[in-house]
Write a structure and sequence with these properties.
Elements: H1 2-19, E1 49-50, E2 56-62, E3 67-75, E4 81-90, E5 95-104, E6 116-124, E7 131-140, E8 151-157
Length: 160
């Protein structure tokens, strides 16, 4: 009888251990949630990456017949290039987005070890802007990037 009880406890222990083993890679350990109807939800806007380059100075000046956007950046070495990539303006909302491509030297390139200031500007017709974003695509010379690589480097707001 004692041997029979020992066998029973050993068998029960083995069955308990097997039942508590972790799920294999193919098994789903978490229950699936039912589908939710989110057809009325607001569409998500694409997240803009955070800008990780030298800081920009950005200003907007309105005159009688034009609005002038000016920006500058001080880079740590020579060999950097800045190019105006385009602008998007929305006269109804009074908002503008200025796009700039900033190219830094590639690895192994010899450059001057001195600070350098790069300047840019864009002139638009007589629209009263209330805010403007300066978005920058920062790449290393020899690399390519797509439109999703822009990041906000500066924001201008009109005084109220």
């Amino acid at each position: 009888m004692c041997i029979l009880m020992i066998r029973f406890f050993v068998f029960a222990s083995i069955v308990t251990l097997i039942g508590c083993s972790p799920a294999s890679d193919g098994d789903s350990a978490t229950p699936t949630l039912p589908d939710v109807d989110d057809s009325n939800a607001a569409p998500e806007l694409p997240a803009m990456a955070s800008y990780k380059g030298p800081p920009f100075r950005f200003e907007v000046q309105a005159e009688e017949s034009t609005t002038q956007f000016r920006w500058s950046v001080t880079v740590p070495t020579g060999g950097w290039e800045m190019k105006f990539d385009g602008a998007t303006t929305n006269p109804r909302s009074g908002r503008a987005t200025i796009q700039v491509l900033l190219t830094r030297p590639g690895p192994g390139q010899m450059v001057t070890q001195a600070l350098q200031t790069l300047n840019g500007d864009y002139v638009n017709g007589a629209v009263a802007f209330t805010s403007a974003d300066l978005v920058v695509k920062l790449i290393t010379r020899g690399e390519s990037a797509d439109a999703a690589d822009y990041a906000r480097a500066a924001l201008w707001q009109a005084e109220q």
